Amino acid sequence: MQTADFTALTPLLLLAAAIAAVMLQIALKRSHILTIVLTLAGLIAAMLGVLAVGDMPARQVTPLVTMDRLAFFFIGLILTATAATALLGCRYWEHAVGQCEEYYLLLLVAALGACVLAAAHHFAAFFIGLEILSISLFTLMAFARRRMASVEAGLKYLVLAGISSAFLLFGIALIYADVGSLAFPIWTARLQAAGETVSPLLLIGMGMTVIGVGFKLALVPFHMWTADIYQGAPAPTTAFVATVSKSAMVALLLRLFAPVDFTAEPALFWTLAILAFASMIVGNILALRQDSVKRILAYSSIAHMGYLLVAFLSGGPAAIAATVFYITAYTITVLGAFGVVTVLSRTDADADSMSDFQGLFFSHPWLAGVFMAMLLSLAGIPLTAGFIGKFYAITAGAQGGIWWLIITLVLTSAASLFYYLRIVVAMFSPPLENKTQPPAAGISYSGGLVLTVMTVLLIWVGSAPGPLIDLIGRITQ
Amino acid sequence: MDVNDPVTSIATIWPLMVFLLAATGLVIVMIGLSALLGQRHWQRTTGEPFESGMLPTGTARIRFDVKFYLMAMFFVIFDLEAIFIFAWAASVRQLGWFGYIEMLIFVGFLLLALFYLWRVGALEWGTKR
Amino acid sequence: MILIWLIAIPVAGGLAAWLLDKWAPGAPRWTALVAMLLNLLIGLRLLAPAEGPWLVAIDVPWIDAFGIRFHLAIDGLSAVLITLTNGLGMIAVACSWHEIDRRRGFFFFNLLWVLAGIIGVFSALDLFLFYFFWELMMVPMFFLIAIWGHENRIYAAVKFFLFTQIGGLLMLAAIIGLYIVHGRATGIYTFDYNALLGTAMAPPTAMWLMLGFLIAFAVKLPAFPVHSWLPDAHTEAPTAGSVILAGLLLKTGAYGLLRFVIPLFPEAARTFAPFGMLLAVIAILYGALLAFSQTDLKRLVAYTSISHMGFVMLAIFAWNELALQGAVIQIVCHGISTGALFIIVGMLQERLHTRDLRRMGGLWDQMPRMGGMALLFALASLGLPGLGNFVGEFLILIGVYPVHRTLTILAALGLVAASIYSLWIVQQAFHGRARETRHRLTDLTGREGTILGALVLAIVWLGLYPQPVFTLTRPVLDRMLQTARSAPATPLKITLAPAATARAAGPVEGDWHADR
Lengths: 477, 129, 516
Hints:
With 477 residues, chain A is mainly α. Chain A is 77% helix and 1% strand.
């Protein structure tokens, strides 16, 4: 290890230091405010670290991780999303459970796992990052321990993530048996060289890796956990799962499969293409049948990962950039959407049913406006980040000539409008009579800050995406 | 040797096949033989658990205090962490002072975790204050 | 710069109206009215003959990574349509003066943003920007229907949005397809309209891309099989919403066909033209037939829109100068006359609290002035000479006749049907004896009289002296006809038999359809 290695690892080291500091602080003196301040300070320090060293040439630190621009971009995204989740949690956890300081500790640990995933260069780092992330996530999901649904969500995720990890581990073992190395580049080179005559061991190993990735991204048919966990988990955790966990996995997807030329490896292309197709169709159809806002967002997230795969599968030069752009736009949007859900939640239950949102426009016009902007972004209406993301995905797909996936994307996202509009319509319907308006105390400053920032970003990226596209262009060269 | 050739790839993994067959066969033989040769009778005490001639009392489903599990978990966790120190110890000379500092940080983290557990009351057996 | 103002004023006016709602209850409508008046006055300056192809243009880079530019430009056709937008926009503000009694600020915000979107659609020359405005006018319209509409508003609003959005997304896919086809062929990736004109592509590709555009515009127009959102949306929308829907939003579909579908894909459009004309004639007759069997007055007027817009589609697919001139006049006059009819229905509903024709009758006794107005616009709708619609329909029929006789005759039957349903409105609502006892009704107030009076002036003027519109739009239409005839010459050499190429390049009038 040299000094340059430590420099490259600065964000991760700062994050780890923040974890130690928060743990020490909780041990010495429990104080919600102090924990929040320390958490945010740690996250901001790590972000500054990203800004400071992000422009350095790519450097491989130990065989495990490589700190290149892609890694730094995703680490920045993960840190931002974590900070937003922490801010959203302030008011939410104040009265929800007795002691809530550990929530922030777990958030930081999960973020560290996600950062390792984003920088992984080796199957061992992949597995370590995945487990750090997953184990923290179980606890984050079950954190509202007085709610049955929350504990149930945590347990379900524990069991299902365990199964998917087992598959992944088996896959890694098979890949090792065939390739003799766990480093990503050697594996992709082997896959590339094998072409169509890829050995059965490698093929099965690849398939099992896809299962591991697909589970975290909630692609059909590995999507079963999504709805229950989105609904059961406390709203800030759901926001975290939907953004941090997914963006880390997308970074990994790029590392694993982007160097592979799909024309040389049709098996991989068709596996992912069928997953994308199924996710778009099944996700949207199931979302049409939901009555719970969180479940609608859960199924829509399945569909969105399908759209993202369309961008990824286009295989052209624009594919990686389009994928990175899509996940960025999606992260902004989903943080905003679940931010509204969090802000509206009461201490005993989250805002979830349609009736919780009915008449929102008349009681909280700004909140309704923000939520509407987020839903329109998910639906892909212009002036929002989601539209540019979808546009980018379609353009990339058209350049790759995968028209059947594009037509599926277009038709399913037209169908998706129906359920997004249902929520919008509910917000504009006259408010229910005998209903106590959540939240009694109004919106907290921290929640308001997150929503404002996300809305501004949403519109900014939606109307002038140039800077972000340039940034991503520099990263993905 | 071309591993992609099906014939040679089968040829290379034949020991595995033999092992699989032997393992499956052994299980089948053990269960099958005892089913064939074993005596069959059904008497009053046949279904009872054998407790060295003692009659079992009470139910087997006792609710243990959750602290037992907690303690067990702490033991496993801290015990496992010690393995890393062994790995370091094996190559302490090659790693030199750099490895020493790294190990100090590692142990420091462990101590911090222990301190945390102590402060939050996880190590106390009695009811929480 | 003037183009920026035209879009920025309604946008800013809408925001101001929303914000001023808290300050004073009357502020939003005055803000909106002033904004639209200002826009109208600025827009009038555009009604001058052009030197070059474009009167004014603005072209700055927007998203460089995709070659997207903020390119707005106006020629005679756009100028006429923008003036119509501003005029009807003002009328729409005026006619919701008292009708809207809750959330006025947000109402006028949406109204002005729809208008801004429509102006953007009429002036965008970058295809991405066009799609951007196309979608932008949809969302506020959705709210206009969903919040301030009548009984069944949510259903109507969602249906409207889904129909137009599916069309819009297909258009987006087609736009991107065109962008890539052009980029592959020339190496220049751009969404610019002028650059994309005459892109060489294989006929099947052109056909698929054209269908993507066509479906979006056909939904908006609305053409026959995809029209079913229209009666619901028109019926449930508030008066101003119906006026904008019928008067302006439908016109964006016709404008899209004129500006994009045929110039960009002349060959494919020519192949499709017989089906297009057939669908148009079906729409004319089907709309008229259904209009006649309605009892809900607003729904009746909505179905007449389908019928009248069928004429526009017929003319566009006939693609010769007379027919196109007729189409432009028809677009403008239909906007005015149908807008006026919707306003009258709105006034009746304010007074009677019903739109059911069976509960009207004998209204002339109590409201002679309104009856007179209704009669005048009904006559305009049936195509009485001297009123604008006659000019449009007459020119269209003359233009279509040499292209396809049978269809022309069938379309002319639509005029007969139009006179039946138009007179039916007047007879059922105003003549005869009252079918139920009702309170004393007030006749037109000063505000209502002014609104309708302005529309009367416009329709009579267009009926007697439509020449200014011709002068403005003729060079534009000529150029479009030229482009559509000459542009495909390059790809045709590769794709079609030489004989067809020679004929397609011929300059003879009506030659576009010559090989049929």
